[in-house]
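Action item from last week, closing it out:
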Amino acid sequence: MSWVDIGFATASGFQQEGYLLLVFYLYPVIKLLREKPMKKILLVEDEKNIILGVKTCLEVANYRVVVVEDGAKAIETAVQEQPDLILLDLMLPKLDGISACEQLKTMEETRHIPIVVLTAKTGDADRKKAQAAGADSYMTKPFRPEQLWGEIEKHLI
């Protein structure tokens, strides 16, 4: 098992030894990330294992993470919490990610918030739909922590 591959690791179950190895291996990168002011990220994901992996990945990099598990709750929470960035899955209950993205980008209170789609959907059609809905970036699962951190930092500068 590739311990750095968050998508694969979370699909296989979170293992404490892998986490410790991840933190040890990435300590220099994590140390640099922890020196910056804490930013708030809204994670919109309905898979518990993915939530655990992504939330851990973000917290070790000194991000404050707010988690919601459906698209409708994402809109409500984004308005209330005003996160610095939204990580949005496409396949969600109640309101899919594309619809949530469209609504977030049309609302005055949330249109300024960068949205990074984080999904298992790898097709060009899905990427184009997300872009048309207003997504600022598109990442596919599985991913490496440094890829996620890099994508987030692009939008928070």
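Closing note: Strands lie at 39-44, 63-68, 85-88, 115-119, 137-140.
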